[in-house]
Design goal:
heterodimer, A: mainly alpha, B: mainly alpha, 1 helix
Chain lengths: 455, 49
């Protein structure tokens, strides 16, 4: 299987770096389906006749496995290259659907857990990190834009899968319960082709390659940008890693604070809002999420990563506070505040790899990113627990309307303040963690796309 | 033609299919994104109806 080797993916001479992002997008658009999993929820409830929690476990397992596989698979991915990682992600993600559909056919929910949750979750994690370090190598001058483009694909994956899944469920059978298996098999086929195309077309730059006309900023010009590399084994021994873990955890938790309850929340804040309008609101938040991933991450190349997170966390906390105090006044204000908060949630995901590159260099940034994604898994558990726990408690007290959510909004404000403080404490990584500098490669640094003879 | 030029020519010729495939993939992913965004904009428009 030498075709999967990293050496077989070195870009040919003159290769345009803008031909690389579609490979990343192909993978992220496919695995982004996970956030449209809820479309299967009601048909699965009918098929298995079980509780909401039992079905919700499928998604939760997938997200937990995403974090674990990204954390443990990152170093393997750095060593073996993006093509092998994308190929593995394809096999796991597609197999997850196949095994899950077997579970549905046999009426065995545990097989669905193993399929979509366990195997699919591994595909999620490896697929998520697979293109990141490659894109950062191709776009050292604009890492925020590059990673934003890929991670926007993850958000976009749900936008594609949600209507597509609904359409397939409606088309394959009169009863959606009978359409689950053919729908899953169709999605598996589509993602198999799309992700394989990504794995085939991915390319890494040749050693010493840099964008034409670009030189790395002089040391000391921006102290927050490292001119050295830190291996993942050392990165996890730095305080900066754990500070960024807190930053990501709090940013994701705060976003979940809105996303988890968006539809019921707008209807409780404004009783005149119908279910259809609430669904429109959820759609708008999806656009905010996706737009934030690309937009804010691209802007971070100009603003600087630390300042960008000051905005996400500091302005985000202010917005949450405003939402708690004034959100019920006018629906337009409510929508505007939540739109920006959710755009910061998306931006936080997309900007973090570039922040890691700034602090730890690009040598093992993919592996470090993988370890950091455990913060996402933790937030994926903590966020809904906080939100639903508070909502249940308030409901039990007979509280209704906007007041039902106030403690939740104030809590999220506090969570963001914690993240803000953590971000403010981030300083350049101590040189004792840096890798020794190696002599420059014998070949002179080459211009756009020039590479070895391999392709 | 020198050996270096022959190798360069062969390398460039071999790279043409991958460039075409990458461009085609841009069209595919771009179309998928456009579909997803369009569907979501339609759904979001209910908020303003």
């Amino acid at each position: 299987m030498r075709v999967l080797d990293k050496s077989r993916t070195v870009a040919p001479r003159g290769y345009n770096r803008w031909l690389v992002p579609p490979a990343a997008l192909a993978v992220h658009l496919s695995i982004g389906q996970v956030y449209a999993f809820s479309v299967f929820k009601n048909p699965l409830l009918d098929r298995f006749g079980t509780s909401h929690t039992s079905i919700a476990v499928i998604f939760s397992m997938a997200i937990v496995m995403l974090g674990l596989s990204a954390a443990f698979g990152g170093k393997w991915m750095e060593r073996n290259g993006p093509r092998k990682a994308m190929a593995l992600a394809t096999v796991c993600w597609v197999t997850g659907f196949l095994v899950a559909s077997l579970g549905v056919t046999l009426g065995q929910l545990w097989i669905v857990y193993v399929g979509y949750g366990l195997i699919g979750g591994i595909g999620l994690g490896i697929g998520y990190i697979s293109p990141v370090s490659t894109l950062i190598k191709w776009f050292p001058d604009r890492p925020g834009l590059a990673t934003g483009l890929a991670i926007m694909g993850f958000g976009g994956g749900a936008l594609v899968a949600s209507p597509l899944t609904a359409k397939l469920l409606e088309t394959y059978a009169a009863d959606p319960t009978d359409a689950i298996v053919p729908t899953m098999l169709t999605l598996a086929a589509v993602y198999a082709v799309l992700m394989t195309c990504g794995a085939v077309t991915i390319r890494v730059p040749a050693p010493g390659w840099r964008p034409e006309g670009w030189t790395p900023p002089a040391p000391g010009k921006n102290a927050m940008q490292s001119h050295a590399n830190v291996r993942v084994g050392n990165a996890v021994r730095t305080p900066q890693f754990y500070l960024l873990w807190v930053v990501l955890f709090t940013n994701v938790t705060a976003g979940i604070g809105i996303l988890e309850q968006a539809s019921p929340m707008i209807q409780d804040f404004f009783p005149a809002v119908t279910a259809a309008t609430a669904a429109g609101f959820v759609g708008l938040l999806s656009l905010a999420n996706m737009g934030g991933r690309f937009g804010w991450s691209t802007i971070s190349d100009k603003m600087g990563r630390k300042r960008t997170y000051i905005m996400y966390l500091g302005v985000g906390a202010l917005l949450y506070g405003t939402l708690a105090a004034l959100g019920s006044a006018v629906v337009g204000l409510f929508v505007a505040l939540t739109f920006v908060i959710v755009s910061f949630y998306g931006g936080g995901f997309a900007t973090i790899p570039a922040y890691l590159k700034d602090l730890f260099g690009e040598l093992e940034v993919g592996a470090i990113h993988g370890r950091l994604l455990t913060a996402w898994s933790a937030a994926g558990i903590a966020g809904p627990l906080i939100v639903n726990g508070i909502a249940d408690a308030r409901s039990a007290q007979g509280v209704t309307g906007a007041a039902l959510y106030l403690p939740s909004l104030v809590t999220m404000c506090g969570v963001l303040v914690v993240g803000f403080v953590a971000n403010m404490l981030v300083r350049p990584v101590s040189s004792r963690f840096h890798e020794p500098e190696t002599p420059a490669p014998h070949a002179e640094p080459v211009a756009v796309g020039a590479a070895t003879e391999e392709s | 033609m020198s050996d270096a030029q022959t190798t360069t020519t062969a390398s460039s010729a071999g790279a043409a299919p991958i460039r075409v495939m990458a461009l085609a993939l841009w069209v595919v992913v771009g179309s998928l994104l456009a579909y997803g965004i369009a569907q979501t904009v339609i759904k979001a428009s209910a908020l303003f109806a």
